[in-house]
């Protein structure tokens, strides 16, 4: 062969008599200087032949209902085959589910037809996924490419660093997220972002993904919430593809996991995630995780995962303060269909100061005002303070009704024990002050469901583990002493009054 002129073509014949197939199997191979690819094959004649014999055998075996056979089996095709694996394509997810249930029958029949010396692993793929892997010149590598189909969650392209408003509440998490996106795998690994619902954690996760995809398109980004991850683990185990799933996950460069708290209690997923975690971190691949609480506060999470999650950087994200809320509202206005509506600063300030528990609440209040304005406003179209207060009247009352805040809890508990508020949040450890402080922390957890870390911050920057053990002590003591329990009940009543 003249080695200087590439590409060249060669024809190979494959002897299939061991499989009792009379068809000659021909490959037209395109040879380059660096290697070769199969340019064309009569693969499909051969596969059709095998598959029609397999179906005939299944159809006449009496093991499948005729209706099912006509509607599901006959609609399938054998699209690839090698000595270890067979790949069958079907039209819909329902077909796939039904045939997966009968995979043993399919594989044993196929093995019989082929007179296969070893066991065959059969996989079922949707036709629509198949087209992604096949082009008209190359029919190979379908089986290898199948592993691409492990579902991720959609990465929201509209959530970027550019449209994330930064303030004191989220500065640290924003900087850490940006640093990870800029230099994945090398700075903080894993990055763990925690905070209450609606504060922008998923937004930051998507922003990391979008940034990497834009600036380093060769890197493989995978975004998933932990429910989807658990589904993938369960399905992969069911389909005998867990090794393929792990292999696929090992190939990811940036793994973004939302709401990790939902993995709690799912033992098998813990195990799989643990090995994926170690593999990625050891290979300097970036992992970013978000949760509504610190790893140590997630009940039902294995210790080894807690320690892995805590081994990188954990950053919190808080409720937006007034200025950040105002800036977010202005951004949302400029991006909304109501961009042209004129809303005055006072109306925005009203929303920013009354609905800033989280950003979702801010967005909801703004939308309510905008729709209210369209529905009821008959003046010059400018949305003013009174339009906003009218639109949100009921909502403000509702949020005012409970009225319980950390400040109120500290005030009530300190008054109950004849202490000052400063004593309650101080470092003093005298018994009566410690007892009152523990109760106040416990009430913050019970009545406001605040994360331990947040309670710690409110009580003079205490460690979350101190808060956790204070709450446990109060619970224990309330079970041991009737008088203590009575005091607790009285305090709770005062706080709620
Ligand atoms: N700083 C911010 N700037 C602009 N938009 C923000 C900001 N923070 C949050 N948002 C917006 O608020 C909404 C809720 O944010 P997101 O879904 O990221 O919250 P989350 O903390 O992940 O909540 P959950 O835990 O419930 O999933 C989204 O529309 C997001 O774009």
TrEMBL record:
One Gene Ontology term, aspect cellular component: cytoplasm
CDD domains reported for this sequence: AAA (cd00009), Bac_DnaA_C (cd06571)
Binding site for ATP: 198, 200-202
Location(s), subcellular: Cytoplasm
GO biological process terms on file: DNA replication initiation; regulation of DNA replication
InterPro entries: AAA+_ATPase, Chromosome_initiator_DnaA, Chromosome_initiator_DnaA-like, Chromosome_initiator_DnaA_CS, DnaA_C, DnaA_dom, P-loop_NTPase, Trp_repressor/repl_initiator
Classification via Pfam families: Bac_DnaA, Bac_DnaA_C
Record's signal peptide: none
Stored Gene3D superfamilies: 1.10.1750.10, 1.10.8.60, P-loop containing nucleotide triphosphate hydrolases
Domain notes: Domain I is involved in oligomerization and binding regulators, domain II is flexibile and of varying length in different bacteria, domain III forms the AAA+ region, while domain IV binds dsDNA.
UniProt record similarity statement: Belongs to the DnaA family.
Subunit structure: Oligomerizes as a right-handed, spiral filament on DNA at oriC.
Role description: Plays an essential role in the initiation and regulation of chromosomal replication. ATP-DnaA binds to the origin of replication (oriC) to initiate formation of the DNA replication initiation complex once per cell cycle. Binds the DnaA box (a 9 base pair repeat at the origin) and separates the double-stranded (ds)DNA. Forms a right-handed helical filament on oriC DNA; dsDNA binds to the exterior of the filament while single-stranded (ss)DNA is stabiized in the filament's interior.
Entry protein name: Chromosomal replication initiator protein DnaA
Organism: Anaerorhabdus furcosa
Name of the gene: dnaA
């Amino acid at each position: 062969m003249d080695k200087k002129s590439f590409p060249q073509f060669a024809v190979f014949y494959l002897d299939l008599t061991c499989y009792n197939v009379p068809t000659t199997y021909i490959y037209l191979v395109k040879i380059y200087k660096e290697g070769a690819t199969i340019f064309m094959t009569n693969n499909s004649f051969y596969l059709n032949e095998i598959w029609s014999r397999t179906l005939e055998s299944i159809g006449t075996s009496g093991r499948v209902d005729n209706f099912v056979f006509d509607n599901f089996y006959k609609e399938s095709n054998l699209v690839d085959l090698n000595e270890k694996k067979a790949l069958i394509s079907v039209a819909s997810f329902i077909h796939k589910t039904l045939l997966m249930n009968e995979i043993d029958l399919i594989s044993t029949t196929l093995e019989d037809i082929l007179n296969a010396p070893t066991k065959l692993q059969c996989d079922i793929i949707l036709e629509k996924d198949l087209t992604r892997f096949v082009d008209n010149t190359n029919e190979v590598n379908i089986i290898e490419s199948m592993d691409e189909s492990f579902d991720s969650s959609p990465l929201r392209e509209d959530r970027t660093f550019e449209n994330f408003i930064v303030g004191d509440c989220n500065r640290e998490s924003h900087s850490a997220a940006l640093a990870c996106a800029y230099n994945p795998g090398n700075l903080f690994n894993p990055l763990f972002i925690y905070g209450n619902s609606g504060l922008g954690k998923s937004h930051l996760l998507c922003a990391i993904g979008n940034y990497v995809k834009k600036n380093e398109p060769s890197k493989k980004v995978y975004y998933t919430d932990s429910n989807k991850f658990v589904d993938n683990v369960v399905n992969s185990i069911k389909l005998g593809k867990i090794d393929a799933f792990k292999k696929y996950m090992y190939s990811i460069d940036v793994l973004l996991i939302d709401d990790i708290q939902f993995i709690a209690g799912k033992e098998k997923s813990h195990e799989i995630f643990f090995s994926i975690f170690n593999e990625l971190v050891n290979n300097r691949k970036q992992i970013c995780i978000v949760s509504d609480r610190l790893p140590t506060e997630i009940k039902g999470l294995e210790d080894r995962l807690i320690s892995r999650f805590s081994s990188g950087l954990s950053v919190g994200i808080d409720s937006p303060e007034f200025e950040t809320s105002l800036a977010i509202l202005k951004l949302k206005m400029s991006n909304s269909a109501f961009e042209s509506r004129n809303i005055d600063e006072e109306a925005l300030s009203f929303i920013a100061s009354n609905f800033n528990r989280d950003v979702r609440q801010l967005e909801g209040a703004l939308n309510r005002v905008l729709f209210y304005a369209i529905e009821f406003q008959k003046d010059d179209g400018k949305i003013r303070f009174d339009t906003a207060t009218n639109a949100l009247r009921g909502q403000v009352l509702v949020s005012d009704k409970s009225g319980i805040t950390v400040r109120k809890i500290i005030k009530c508990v300190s008054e109950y024990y004849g202490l000052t508020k400063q004593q309650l949040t101080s470092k003093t450890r005298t018994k009566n002050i410690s007892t009152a402080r523990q109760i106040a922390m416990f009430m913050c957890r019970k009545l406001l469901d605040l994360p331990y870390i947040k309670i710690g911050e409110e009580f003079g920057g205490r460690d979350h583990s101190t808060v956790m053990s204070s709450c446990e002590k109060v619970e224990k003591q309330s079970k041991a002493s009737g008088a203590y329990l009575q005091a607790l009940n009285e305090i709770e009543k005062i706080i709620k009054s």
